[in-house]
């Protein structure tokens, strides 16, 4: 799995956690997994035509997952990710399963993910 600079942002070992979570949800391994960057020609996500729309991971093997990783997840992050996923589905011409992974999250963010059908995993430490 190529996960961009995630380890530099939220700590080493994250690549392993992301791989485990995606494979746990899917029940399979993914030979095709990469960082994905698409161009938003109409400015749907950021209000700027031609803006790049990035995903931390695009894992596909029959079924496809788009993954966003955050150290702390807020409700606004969920809405932005959901918008990005809708653009990606149109550009890729296929349905994807949106998955957010966070080290911590606000309760409103979890509620928003449930409302929008975004799968998630919060890595809680006790």
Quote the average pLDDT: 82
Proportion of helical residues: 25-40%
Radius of gyration: 14 Å
Uncertain spans: 1-8
Give a structural overview:
By secondary structure, this protein is an alpha/beta fold. It is 37% helix and 35% strand.
Question: How would the blueprint of this fold be written?
Answer:
Blueprint: H1 6-10, H2 14-26, E1 32-40, E2 51-61, E3 63-73, H3 75-92, E4 97-105, H4 107-116, E5 119-122
Helix pairs in contact: 3-4
Task: Sum this structure up briefly.
With 126 residues, this protein is α/β, with parallel strands linked by helices. The protein is built from four helices and five strands; from the N terminus they run ααβββαβαβ.
Q: Which descriptors apply to this entry?
A:
126 residues; alpha/beta; 5-stranded mixed sheet; 4 helices; 5 strands; 37% helix; 35% strand
């Amino acid at each position: 799995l190529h996960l961009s600079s995630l380890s530099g942002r939220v700590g080493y070992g994250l690549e392993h956690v992301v791989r485990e979570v995606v494979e746990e949800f899917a029940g399979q391994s993914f030979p095709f997994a990469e960082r994905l960057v698409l161009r938003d020609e109409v400015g749907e996500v950021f209000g700027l035509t031609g803006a790049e729309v990035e995903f931390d991971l695009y894992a596909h093997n029959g079924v496809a997952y788009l993954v966003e990783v955050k150290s702390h997840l807020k409700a606004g992050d969920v809405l932005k990710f959901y918008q990005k996923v809708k653009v990606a589905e149109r550009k890729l011409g296929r349905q994807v399963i949106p998955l957010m992974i966070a080290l911590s999250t606000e309760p409103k963010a979890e509620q928003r993910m449930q409302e929008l059908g975004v799968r998630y995993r919060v890595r809680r430490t006790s």
